[in-house]
Request: fold
Amino acid sequence: MAKDHKMRNVAIVGIALLAVYVIFVNPDVLDQAKAPTPTTTNTPVNDVTTSNIYNGPITVRFPSSDELDPSLAYGEDTELDILLWKLNSDGTYSKITSVSSAEIGTATVTSSKDLKTVYAEYSVASGQDYYVYSPSASENDRSAGVPQWLDLNNDGRPTYVFPINIAGFPQNPGITPQFDFAVTLLDEGTFTLDSPANVDVTDTGKQRCSIKWSLDAGASGDAIAVTRVRFTFNSTTTGEWYPLDTNISFPTGSDPNSPKQKIFLSEFTPTELASTYRYDYMIGNGDVKEAHFLLSPLNGETNFEIPVEAYLNMDTVSLASQITLGIQTVDSFGNQAETTDAVICS
Reply:
């Protein structure tokens, strides 16, 4: 499906017609870039307060677009796969229907006293490079809250499941209620970790080795999900470096010039290996749900600077101190990859 289709959100005005949209908020800081924690209870919301309500078929449309460029429309069964589920009294889920394969997928569900909330499971279609971008805030009054992170197909791949309240339409014989429930996607891009020049440290004692790494986003794709930052020293003698002083400044938002979060090596988890010492800083649980997204607006080439200040004890360094930076990313299918680069401070 061509990405240059225009998506127009259509507000259908009438007594029984209502258009509703989910609004997504871009992250500005590292913590806000994490998708929200899913709800822990699975109780459907019942907003029916009057007996004069509609029970019957309801048409739900599922438009989807690019988070950073709303003019790019995506479709069901091409970029997305959408299934609708209901929650059973024993806490299990049963599939109701699949959403039709179209640029704006459509499904018909039947509201009744026993079915007031349906659960829309969004997953990226096979072979597609996108992320379903979960909202950090919602103004959709037919949403029962933040999305849940569930594996309803028992295939080992959790996906976002959005509760949608379908109850509460007024009676209007002859007219089938319809509304829209929209999510946005991020076009998964590729990033490379540049290779700065080695740094000469000529003085003795406690000295700073300043390294200016950057993650360079290509012109294709607009996002990458980072799940781990790793430092590796080519020594097991911990007295050669200072964890309380050594730090990395990591990008916090989509703007490469936005403020950065300074993370000290003492906040990392250390691991001594056979001939190296490794420090890991995990972001969330390493999954897409809690990953930190670096966004490259409108598929433009973007360089995210990642300066590092490594404080070394030049009196005890027995050989050139090689420091390796590793950035772990994850795709929408849960596959992880690591990009590394090494610099020598000598």
User: Anything to note?
Assistant: Residues 1-41, 43-50 have pLDDT under 50 and may be disordered. The radius of gyration is 24 Å. The chain has two domains: 56-187, 191-345.
